Amino acid sequence: MDATTDKDPLVQEQIYNALCYLGESEPEEILNSCDEYLRQHDKLAYPHRVIILNAMETVVKDNIALLDKSTAKEVIRDWQQAASNVLVAVGQRFINKVMEEVLSKFQPGILPHYFVLQTFANLSVSNGE
């Protein structure tokens, strides 16, 4: 997974494809490996983090019927946390665009998802003066 930091888009695509391919035969193992990698590399630049997150999303979508309930629950929570972290990282440079996207998730009369609120709060903290 370290190759996701390669600047060549073809290498990045090959990593994504390899993760998805391996996820076809061992979805839980790949999801757990991706999760562990993201935890160990919490400073991984967001474009590279997105490659792994996209692969995780594909593996989950393609294998949802095969996943153990506890694995699915853990992966969804971790995936949402990682996605929130990516938005916060992007927001350090493009705060207006990220805030626009996060605020669009607030709907009148509907309680927003936990990670929407957490992302909003973390954006505020990371961009405080």
From TrEMBL:
Domain MROH2B-like N-terminal HEAT-repeats: 19-127
A Gene Ontology term for the protein's cellular component: cytoplasm
Signal peptide span: none
Pfam families: HEAT_MROH2B_1st (PF23221)
Protein name per UniProt: MROH1 protein
Species of provenance: Hemiprocne comata
Gene name for this UniProt entry: Mroh1_1
